[in-house]
Amino acid sequence: MQRRRLAVTLAITIFSLSACGKKAEECVVMLDVANKDIAALKTAAAAKPAGGPKDLAAAVRATADAADKLVIDLGKKGPTTAELQKASGDYQAVAKAVSVAARAHGDSLDDLLAVQPKARADRADPDRKSLTTAHDAVKQRCAEHPGFECKAITAVMVKVSTIIDKPTDLGKLDAELGKVKMKDPALAALIDKLRGSITGLARTLTDVAAAASEMKDVEAKVAAASAAVDAALAKEAPITASLTAFCK
After folding, report:
1. How far is Cα 190 from Cα 147, in angstroms, rounded to an integer?
2. I need a labelling partner for 172 at 20 to 30 A (CA). Which of 43, 65, 87, 142 fits?
3. SS3 148
4. pLDDT in the model for residue 19
5. CA distances in angstroms from 213 to 95, 188, 208, listed in the order given
6. What whole-number distance in Å separates Cα of residue 14 and Cα of residue 218?
7. What is the mean pLDDT of residues 129-140?
8. What number is the average pLDDT over the span 207-223?
């Protein structure tokens, strides 16, 4: 009876030592992944390139790649210890969330990169120059060949300098010029060119305003996407703390 009890005790002791050994072995593997892949993930996430949206998009996609690597590496390990299986699952869930958020961030930065040139105020400068040139040509023609229609045109064109950045008012000016009856063919041709310049500038100004509004929306999406990456990354620390405590 005593020998039987001793054998049972010895079996339990051997089983316990074996379990501890398995835990220690799997802890080493898990901690190795945590130390390497999570460090790489944090390094990628901390990158702050100074080159604008294009470089930042590349950086956040590098963060997504690092998160994907963490998922792949953890998937290869397959711990048998329940606590480590949970930690592995939690890490993979966090990494997947980081990857999704980072790629969404990259996409929003691509959108910002696409809309920025359209929203530039100086995009309308060539049209402003064309309008000014056409306006001066009409004035010169009227100075050299004054006539009844020139008086009507001058009264209308006096508004040009005050409405050059107002698409709606430019449209009204175009309509007013269209009402003036032209007898001088040369002047009529210059007025047609002026009206074309007015229409072109009004269209460009409208497009720039629309792009500027779109850019504000895109910037809000960029900020939200960045916050989502940060929120996903913040969930890693408690998992690492729990894993470290378990593996002590």
Report:
1. 15
2. 142
3. helix
4. 40
5. 34, 38, 9
6. 62
7. 94
8. 96
Query: Could you give the CA distance from residue 186 to residue 216 in angstroms, rounded to a whole number?
Result: 46
Tokens 């892949």 belong to which residue? 37
Contacts for 73 with CB less than 8 Å, ≥ 6 apart: 33, 37
Q: How many helices and strands, by DSSP H and E, does the chain display? A: 10, 0
Let me know: does 202 contact 170? Beta carbons within 8 Å.
Answer: yes
Using 50, 70 and 90 to split pLDDT, how confident is the model at 17? very low
Give the long-range contacts of residues 82-86, CB within 8 A, separation 24 or more.
83/246, 84/23, 84/26, 84/27, 84/30, 84/243, 84/246
Q: How far apart are CA 39 and CA 44, in angstroms?
A: 9
- CA-only gyration radius of the chain, Å: 35
- Indicate whether 5 pLDDT > 60: no
Confidence grade of residue 25 (pLDDT, cut at 50, 70, 90)? confident
The band of 47, judged by pLDDT with boundaries at 50, 70 and 90, is: confident
Which residue type is seen at 72? I
Q: What are phi and psi of 50, to 5 degrees?
A: -100, 5
| 8 Å CB contact between 160 and 237 | no
Nearest to 231 by CA among 81, 146, 122, 105: 105
Structure letter (DSSP) for residue 81: S
Taking residues 119-126, what's their average pLDDT? Answer: 94
> What average pLDDT does range 61-87 have in this prediction?
89
Do residues 214 and 114 make contact, with C-beta atoms less than 8 angstroms apart? no
At residue 49, what are phi and psi to the nearest 5 degrees?
Answer: -65, 150
